[in-house]
Amino acid sequence: MTCDYLFTHPLSRSKGESAAAVILQYIQRTQESQESTSPLSQNTSTPPKEFFKYQKKLISSVSAQSYFLSTYGGTSHMSLDDIYTEGQLELAHDCVDISAPLGLEDVVGSAGTVNEEADTVLVSGEAGSGKSTLLQRLHLLWARGAALQDFLLLFPFSCRRLNSESRDMSVQELVFQHCCWPDREQEEIFQFIVDHPHLILFTFDGLDELKQSFSDEHRLCCPTQPAPVHVLLFNLIQGFLMKGVRKVVTSRPEAVAPLLKKHLRKEVFLKGFSPAGIDIFVRKHHSDSTVAAKVLQSLQTNTALLGLCHSPVLCSIVSQCHKELLGCGEGSPQTITDVYLMILQHFLQHQSPMKSSVGLGWLQEHLKTVLRMGQLAFEGIATSCYVFSGADLEICCITEKDICTGFLMQSKDMSSSQSIHYEFLHVTMQCFFAALYIVLSTNTDRSAILTLFKLQQLKETGCFGACLPSADQQKHAFEEDATAEQTPNLQITATFVSGLLSQRHQSLWLHCCSSAILEKKARQVERCLSKGMQKHFKSIPQPVQGEKKSMHAMPGFVWLIKCIYEMQESRIAKDAMSKLEVDHLKLTYCNIGPVECTALAYVLQHLRNPVGLQLDNNSVGDVGVEQLLPCMDICKSLYLRNNNITDEGIRKLLAKGIQCDNFQKIALFNNNLTDACTQHFSHLLRTKQDFLSLRLGNNNITAEGAKQLAEGLKNNHSLMYLGLWGNKIGDAGAEALASALENSKTLLWLSLVGNGVGSVGACALARVIRNSTSLEELWLTENCITRAGVESLIQALQHNTHVKSVWLRNNDLSAEEVEEMTQQESRLIF
């Protein structure tokens, strides 16, 4: 509303001075409100007059760089608005302030903050999970004024580009030369940045691609003092430089050392697409809704491929190769290698569609191109190089025709009118070509595969140092020692090598490479995988007397499992599992998603003896649950706490579980379960008379769900542990459960903590205490039980000496009542 409008409005003309006074008050309040919400309102200093011109220039630059999606191949013509699909963002599992799904602005918001004094937010996610695209979206929304408006300036950096900086720089030079150069008053503008750090946001994409490992050895505090770029970056992250400036850093989780984590404000996990996200992305990718529907239907009939599509980069490839996907029938892709071979065929055949070979001859026709690109990728992986100059391309004899295949694109961060630089469409594509080179080239000796899989020996040899021609060894050796954590791309490359050497693909290489050489390389990989697994098994400590033998698997174990799955050789899986003798296999906090579930089930189904499988605090989801079904026969117990599983996933899981003789325990704390799942648990309890433990804490189960469970419990004569803490069953639910359990001869432990149970429910549960011959512990903490309810429990306890404890902390009792009742019954725990 403008002043002119206000003073020409009929009301002001008719009401005279009183109306004018009201209008002036309104204007004053509006101005004060605008000033109070401005990021500059808390600062008395005025920006230099050139500041707003510079801000406008920076906004224009960031907007232009962010407008088109540039991460995935073949979509550079798409605007980010047309294709962007939100991924699943999660905070650490122990965060107490998680109440709703996280949005983009929550990345820099207060939710999940663990260190108020730190400035750096880490966005971690696996390769292809959408980290770069997420940053790009944040940049674009900031430039449009649609998000992050607390920050006057946003400076985006690419660690891939920073790798190319060999000279020392100051923070001032870094900011202006890598982001946006002020036309005038550089010193004044930078001084304003230094004086107002809380108004500034830095983003660093791809910390895992930086050649140097994180270190806190070199301290730097002066923003105008020159230093190597990685030293600047590490001091920015730690807050020694530009304290108060918010920094957002992306990286793969395995590349983030504990030394860095202690400097984080918080960590946000990007988990790729949800099932709904896959649907949205595919429909956005295809303007023809009929094609989109066919692709989605194909994914629903191939759950292994659907699991792969939780990775945005793989979902993009599958969407792009829809013709190949829909035409492959029973040969639909099952592994990551299958998907990348599909994109390889798609790009190569679309380069010259009129003369492309049919059948399996397409690779032979383009073999020289594949080898040249493979050499470039291979030597890049060996030196942590992801951006290539024209000279790099010339060394590998890359032609213009090779570039036109579409696997290389101009680097937007590095290219200029004087010098064009290239990079692979995605780092996983570079790993794939490096793997093709290892498999098909005669220029790599047998040590290439050995070095790739013996990652722990990299410190001694230098990555691939022994594999390259001797004249190039010094040139291509790592500048720093490498380990598996610092070079996760080696693991991805090794995974592809395993897949490419699968028997399933032997016919593809028939006219490209000697079958004897391929078989020799395949045997090498098999031996490496076998030795790697044996090393893990030998590290299992002997159990303490009276306890079960347990193995806490590390991420390296999951990687080896994925390599075995890529080979698709059940013989190798059987051999690996024949040597594993444990009672309990623990895979918590291992970034287990649907892809990993597929590989785990493929391998673990060959275990000789049943195990307890613990997958707590991962990202299994409904699709991952479905992928685990083939190994349910060997699961005695299944722990899936905190895994974003819904009723639909449980429906499929229990339909299989009922058929499995060994299956006796399940724990599903903190998922997304509702009353709809309880009918399936009720059927399980009625059907399996050897089922021992059911834990459904912290879900969304109400009295109706409890009544459904009670129907199954009435006919069950084996259950020993029932956990429903943190639900909403109330008195009605407690009464239903009590009615079903009061004559139980097996139940040892019952937890209804935090369920809104009052004295009516407590009186019903007193009947369980009075009549059960097995119950030892009853947990009723954090409910709303009053004196009357507790008195009924005390009376019941007088008739049952077998019960060891009844927990009643945080109920509706006064301190005096607690003291009095503790005196009456020592088994009450307040």
UniProtKB/TrEMBL annotation:
Leader sequence range is: none
User: What Gene Ontology cellular component terms go with this record?
Assistant: cytoplasm
Ranges for domain NACHT: 119-255
Record's SUPFAM superfamilies? RNI-like
Q: Sorted alphabetically, which Gene3D superfamilies does this protein's record hold?
A: P-loop containing nucleotide triphosphate hydrolases (3.40.50.300), Ribonuclease Inhibitor (3.80.10.10)
Chief site of localization: cytoplasm
Q: Does the keyword Nucleotide-binding apply?
A: yes
List GO molecular-function terms, semicolon-separated: ATP binding
Keyword annotations of the record: ATP-binding, Cytoplasm, Leucine-rich repeat, Nucleotide-binding, Repeat
InterPro entries assigned: Leu-rich_rpt, LRR_dom_sf, NACHT_NTPase, NLR, NLRP_HD2, NOD1/2_WH, P-loop_NTPase
Which cellular compartments is it found in? Cytoplasm
Q: Which PANTHER family does the entry mention? A: NACHT, LRR AND CARD DOMAINS-CONTAINING
Could you identify this protein by its name?
Nucleotide-binding oligomerization domain-containing protein 2 isoform X2
